[in-house]
Amino acid sequence: EADADEASVRRLCDDLNVPLTVGKGDVPAAAAAQGDGLEAAAREARYEFLTQAAHEHGARFVATAHTADDQAETILHRILRGTGVAGLAGMAIARPLSPAVSLVRPMLAATRRHVLAYLAERGIAFREDASNRDVTLTRNRLRHELLPLLRSGYNGEVDAALLRLGALAAECQKVIDALVDDLQRRAVVCERDQAIVHCDALAGQAPYVVRELLMALWRQHDWPQQPMSFQHWQDLAATAQSGPALWRLWRRDLPGGVRAEKKGEQLVLTRPC
Q1: Contact 44, 36 (CB under 8 A)
Q2: Rounded to whole angstroms, how far apart are CA atoms 156 and 158?
Q3: What is the model's pTM?
Q4: Sorting pLDDT into bands at 50, 70 and 90, what band is 1?
């Protein structure tokens, strides 16, 4: 099936005189090695390949065809997994893939129905990935089973409601990001593989903002976030906001190889190379 997909894309590129770059990977092996599900491993492999291809061709942008329907599915999926405000915002219209390459989603405001109508009106052929019909995958069960049930039995406008929730969450996240940026300037000293948090500056801060600060430090240092559970973030934030540990050194080895140490009013986060 994948070979047929490639052949279809190759024919289209030949017709349009557009260069084509093809890559292949062993997704099940990657999933097993990373401890991820197939969907997550496939997504990671795709973006890694696209980023590499963009670098090789000197491209600054990678554009994907995600639609508003994909956005609604993403938000619902994240709700079911117990996401935070940033997750409720769904997919960003643009985000960096590397310092030199950005991912853009120019069709995020268009619905799947409108895209299909556009193609039909202009007689443009298209090919659907067969894996989109595989209901053993969580994302496809949401698309083919749960969302139709919600539309027919609970809210006929559930897609619009999810998109509205995402837009509101994105606005909230901007406020949170501003609070985190201000707090980081006052409370954190960052080095190449280390972050020192001056915990006295966290006094009176909402625990949510402190957790967001810690997650921001993980992202800035490119430390693995996937192994960190909500309870890990909760416990670390509580430790950062607890009284000074003057009489002993508090130390934890966290998932992903990060070590947290607190002594007095400093929380030191390191990930040895």
Answers
A1: yes
A2: 6
A3: 0.87
A4: confident
Name the segment(s) of the chain with CATH classification 3.30.465. 192-270
> At the top level of CATH, which class does the domain 192-270 belong to?
alpha beta
Looking from the CA of 158 toward its CB, the CA atoms found within 13 Å total 16
Q: What is the rounded distance in angstroms from the CA atom of residue 248 to the CA atom of residue 105?
A: 50
CA distance 213 to 236: 11
Provide CB contacts within 8 A for 78, sequence distance 6+.
87, 88, 90
Q: Is 64 left (phi over 0), alpha (psi -120 to 50) or beta?
A: beta
Q: Summarize pLDDT for 191-246 with one digit per residue, the tens.
A: 888 999 999 999 999 999 999 999 999 999 989 898 899 999 999 999 999 877 55
Read off the pLDDT of residues 111-169 as tens digits, 9 standing for 90 and up: 999 999 999 999 988 898 888 898 988 999 999 999 999 999 999 999 999 999 999 99
Domain with CATH 3.40.50.620 in the chain: 65-93+107-174
Would you identify the CATH topology of the domain 65-93+107-174? Rossmann fold (3.40.50)
